[in-house]
């Protein structure tokens, strides 16, 4: 659900059903005044998708079906700290869509990548699909990632864009497929506040979105 104000409430999540594919959340602002300087994702081959991840942390295995293709363009950075944020942010988003497809608002994989407050937001978003017997199909590119890490190295923000033009919802019972209404801007901008937990996993604290904010 695309937000029109700085914070999206749970009530807004329920009522703004026309914007079908946007993965937004509500809650407080988890940004930090110490966050300065942007680290834009690059296609540098020196940074692999898991180059700087802590090897002693057992992360959940997240699988998406071929009916829904979530792709991440230029999701790399030459900075290992930024790459850690990108890696966990990617899996957090994948876990959310996997929960929708699996009809599981209580997804343990999603909870792994959320703080307690962040997970309550995630559940509200997931339930806007599962409560209506909806799943997602098609292709959803995720692109233009930017990372800002706070001076204390335990808080950060991750922004990115999605293009919903080739993605749709599908009713599990009737099979009815719907995309966004005609004239809807398919690109959505996201700003995710994240915090590093004791295990070194970057977890989502809050998420805000703006339809058309990518231009």
**Helical stretch tally:** 4
The percentage helix is 10-25%
CATH architecture: Roll
CATH topology: Nuclear Transport Factor 2, Chain: A
Total number of beta strands: 8
User: What's the shape?
Assistant: globular
The helix-strand sequence is HEEHHHEEEEEE
- Rg measurement, Å: 16 Å
Beginning-to-end CA distance, first to last residue: 18 Å
Rounded mean pLDDT score:
81
> How would you classify the helix and strand content by structural class?
alpha+beta
**How is the biggest beta sheet arranged?**
8 strands, mixed
User: In CATH, what is the class?
Assistant: Alpha Beta
Mind explaining what this structure looks like?
This protein has a single domain, classed as Nuclear Transport Factor 2, Chain: A. It has four helices and eight strands; from the N terminus they run H-E-E-H-H-H-E-E-E-E-E-E. The chain is globular. Strand 3 (134-149) and strand 4 (155-163) form a beta hairpin. Helices cover 22% and strands 27% of the residues. Residues 1-20 and 24-52 have low confidence and may be disordered. The two termini are 18 Å apart. With 215 residues, it is α+β, with helices and mostly antiparallel strands. Strands 1, 2, 3, 4, 5, 6, 7 and 8 form an eight-stranded mixed β-sheet that branches. Residues 41-54 have a biased composition (Low complexity). Residues 1-23 form the signal peptide. Residues 30-58 are annotated as: Disordered. This is Lipoprotein. Keywords: Signal.
């Amino acid at each position: 659900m695309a937000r029109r104000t700085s914070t999206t409430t749970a009530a807004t999540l329920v009522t703004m059903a026309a914007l079908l594919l946007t993965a937004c959340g509500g809650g407080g602002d988890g940004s930090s005044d110490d966050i300065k300087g942007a680290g834009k994702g690059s296609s540098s081959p020196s940074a692999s998708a898991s180059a700087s991840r802590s090897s002693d942390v057992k992360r959940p295995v997240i699988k998406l079906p071929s009916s829904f293709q979530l792709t991440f363009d230029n999701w790399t950075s030459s900075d290992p700290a930024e790459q850690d944020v990108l890696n966990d942010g990617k899996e957090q988003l994948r876990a959310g869509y996997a929960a929708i497809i699996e009809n599981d608002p209580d997804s343990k994989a999603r909870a792994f990548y959320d703080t307690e407050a962040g997970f309550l937001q995630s559940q509200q978003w997931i339930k806007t699909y599962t409560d209506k017997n909806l799943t997602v199909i098609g292709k959803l590119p995720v692109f233009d990632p930017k990372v800002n890490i706070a001076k204390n190295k335990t808080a950060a923000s991750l922004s990115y864009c999605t293009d919903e033009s080739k993605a749709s919802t599908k009713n599990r019972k009737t099979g009815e497929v719907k995309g966004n209404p005609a004239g809807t801007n398919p690109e959505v901008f996201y700003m995710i506040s994240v915090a590093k937990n004791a295990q070194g996993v970057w977890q989502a604290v809050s998420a805000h979105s703006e339809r058309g904010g990518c231009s």
